[in-house]
Each structure stands twice: as C-alpha cells, then as structure tokens.
Amino acid sequence: MFTVNGLIYKNILHIDKLEIPDHKIICLFGESGSGKSTLLKMFNQMLSPDDGEITYKSQPIQEFPSVELRREVVMLGQDPIVFDETVRENLQKGLEFAERELEDDQTLIKMLGKLKLDKSLDEDASKLSGGEKQRIALARVLLMKAEVYLMDEPTSALDENTEHLVMDVFTEFIRTHQKTAVMVTHSKEVAEKYADQVVYMSDILNRRGAVT
Amino acid sequence: MNEMLDITFWQLSTAYIFILILLAIVKWWKISREKEILIATFRMTIQLVLVGYVLTFIFENENMLYSLIVLVIMQTFAIFNIFKRTKHSMSNHLKKIIAIAMVTGTLFSFLYFDFIVAQFSPWYDPRYFIPIAGMLIGNSMTGITLGVSSLVEGFQARRKEVEAALMLGATPNKASQGIVNHAFDSAILPTINSMVGMGIVFLPGMMTGVILSGASPMDAIKYQIAIMLGITGSVSLTVIIFLYFGYKTFFNKYAQLHV
Asked: Percentage of chain B with pLDDT > 90?
C-alpha cells in the first residue's frame, strides 16, 4: 500500500526502506520521540519529507491531490478533537468534511453502541470526558469507511478494559471491510495482540545519517 | 449659512490645560506615561497644523492630481499602520494581501460613494474627496487590523482543530471556516456597534464638524447616514477580500497548515 525509500525529515526521521502491505493492520511501535507520529503524518500528506520518496498504490504520494488523498487515507490524531457541537454533528463531521452523504441517526446510534458510548445524539460533545471524546473521534472516522486508517495512539485516553473493547471493534471493522490500518502505539501489548505486523521504529531508523 | 465660530490662538492654548492636568495626575499616581502623553500631544498638534497648511493649499488650488496624491499617501500610511499595529509576525504573502485588500476594497467603495451616492462635482473636489476617502480608509484600516489579529491568533490557538479537519479530508477552506468567520465578526463588530450607538451615545466627528460649520442638523445627518453606510460597505468589502485570500496563506500547495 505504501513504500518508503530513503526518507529524510529534519533530524527526526531517516528511513532507508519500509513497506506497508495492504489489507493488514500494521503497528508502528517505539518510544516517544522516535518519530512514529511524524512518519504517520507523511502517509496522508499532512507532512512532506525533506528528501526521499513515499509511494501510495505504487505512485509517488505527492502526485495525489492532498485533500482527495486524505478522504481515502483518513487520519486520527493523537489528541481527540471534538468540535463545539452535539454528538451527532461530531459524528457526521468526517463525512461532512469529505463532502459525502451524511448517515442517518440509526447508523450513528448503532456506532455509539458498538463503542459502548451511552450518549444521546443531542448531547454537547465538549462536555464529554477524555475517553469519551476519543471514542467519538474514532466513531467519526469509522463512519467514513475510508480505504486506509492512520491511527495515532487511538486508545491513549482509555482504561484497559475499554481499550481492548475499542481495539476489538476497530480491528474487526478493518478485517471485515478489507481495509488497511497503520497504527502508532507505545503499548507493546496492544501492538502484539492486534497487529498483523509490528514495525519497530528502532529497526527502520537509520541512525548513521541522522544528525543528533 | 452661519459663519463658524472662530477660536483665537489664546483660547486654543488654554485647551492644553487638559493635558497639564493629565500630566499632573499620572505623575502623582506614579504612572510612567508622561513621555508618551507629551509626544502624543506634540505630534497631534504638529500633524494637524501641517495638515491645515496642506489642505489650505490643496483647497485653494483645486487639482485632480493633488487629490489623488493625498489618496495615495493616506492609503500607504494606512497599510503600513496595519503592519505596525499587528503584534503577530506576518508572512510577506499575507502583507501583500492586506495591501491588495485595502486598495481594492476602499477604492471600489469610494468610487461608488463619489460617483453614485454623493456625486461630488468635480469628482476630485478636495473638500469632499479628501475627508470622505480618509474616513473610508481609516475605518477599513481599523477593521483589517482587527481581522488580521483575529485570523493569526485563531490559527495559532486552533491549530489542532484545523489539522484534525484536514486529516479527515477537509479542504483548507472548510477547515478554517470557524476561524475566518470569527475574524470577520471581530473586524466588523466596531462598525456595527458604532451604527447602533450613532446619535444616541455619541455625535460622530463628521456630523459635529458639519454642524459646527453652520449647517442645519438635518443636513448634517444626511451626510452622516450616507457616510456611515459607506464606511460599513468599505470595511466589510476590504475585510472580505482580505479574509478570502488571507486564510490561504496559512496553507501550502499540499494543503498543509504552516503556522
């Protein structure tokens, strides 16, 4: 799905070669500051490398129009963002941004149920707890039924039980819909339990070229 | 028309007592602002005396070129004043857009006001041309200054929100909609407020001037209504042009936010 060749980004990343296969769940695992999030952002053009090449579906990624690419390769950032609106509007936001048809209330309620969010659609989303916001943000991207999911620590604000529940829902979604997921995590347990393949940042980073 | 009441030189100098009182107070309260007050008073006096001479010359030698030169000077001053008054660092691209918005927005509003609404004759009659252009440019300058600050602050404070929207495939336009709307709001609000308070909370400078010069209040309000509408139009137009092009400078060709 993605290949990385001779990528250099500031002093943060220096990767000779990396391949991300399609229809798989890949975990990027490494300590904080190892450049996981930075690398993830390059897969949907939120950042561009200083040098080197990233391809998506065998084409240089910069040849895709960024906005179109991001509708196909959706990313969920590290800090879950909710907009100052109701739960319903927050769930629809991804579809709205991507200029797609909105889902009906029933679908939204079903999605809330799957993620064990016992909330009404009319509730003010800004009043939710951190963990609830994170699940709203996740539900929002799942509703988009994108091709590729880039997830930056999608369960960081959740307790262990909820984390496993959410990961079960997410991975099942990816597998049944034949999607691809690249997930950043610092939890070795999550990486090893849910990923088809774990990429250790320490293995792919080429320290020789990096200026420290 | 009645003759305007003249103030003698000595009467005028007694008005400086206000400043002396102010200086005494700040000194007494140990607010170190004496220097600024003195400089401001001095500048105000000198600038107005100079303007008095310049305007006298221009009014006595009615000439299209002089009116246009004054227009260019006012415009240039206003644009640099916006740059100076904005505390945030701005990209050159953004500065260029500020200048373009100021020039096109105020010029279009002014020409409409001159040729359609007021129909000055000749169209460059400095008695009307200069003060009206000054009011449109001055108010638009304030509007853009507020708009620029709000836009830059918005992108800094809500960077994560904008990025989250981009990550979901939002266009830069859609991702910055909230910030742009807020910036428009803050830029236009003083003008709206001054329309609301007009005539009740204060008598605007221009109307006061027209009344002082001996015209009837009914004539004065006609001018005031027209100019107030003109100012609102000019402020909104310049701010809209600025925001329409300005938000784009925060994104690069890959629709990445750089703040």
From this structure: 76
DSSP classification of residue A100 = -
Q: What pLDDT does A186 receive?
A: 79
**B255 Cβ under 8 Å from any chain A Cβ:** yes
Q: Is B176:B162 a contact under the CB 8 Å cutoff?
A: yes
The verdict on residue B195 lying in a domain is: yes
Give B158 to chain A, closest Cα distance, Å: 10
Q: Specify if B40 maps to a domain.
A: yes
Mean pLDDT of A35-56: 93
In a domain, B255, yes or no: no
Per-residue pLDDT, B245: 96
What integer pLDDT is reported at residue A211 of this predicted model? 42
> Which residue, among B158, B159, B162, B168, would best test binding to A if mutated, counting the most A CBs under 10 Å from its CB?
B168
- Whether chain B has a CB inside 8 Å of the CB on A133: the answer is no
For residues A155, A157, A162, A166, the Cα torsion angle rounded to the nearest 10 degrees is -30
Nearest CA in chain B to A83: B161
The predicted model gives B41-49 an average pLDDT of 94
DSSP codes joined into one string, B179-226? HHHHHHHHHHHHHHHHHHHBTTTB--HHHHHHHHTT--HHHHHHHHHH
CATH of domain A2-204: 3.40.50.300
Q: Rounded to whole angstroms, how far apart are CA atoms B78 and B123?
A: 23
Global pTM reads 0.86
Residue A55: enclosing H or E segment and its boundaries? strand A51-56
Say yes or no: B157 and B71 in one domain.
yes
Q: Which stretch of DSSP H or E encloses residue B157?
A: helix B126-157
Q: Which domain holds residue B225?
A: 63-250
ipTM comes to 0.92
* Domain-ending residue, one of B61, B83, B104: B61
Are B45 and B120 in a shared domain?
no
Cα–Cα distance measured from residue A212 to residue A22, given in angstroms and rounded to the nearest whole number: 33
Looking at the structure, tell me whether residues B57 and B67 fall in a common domain: no
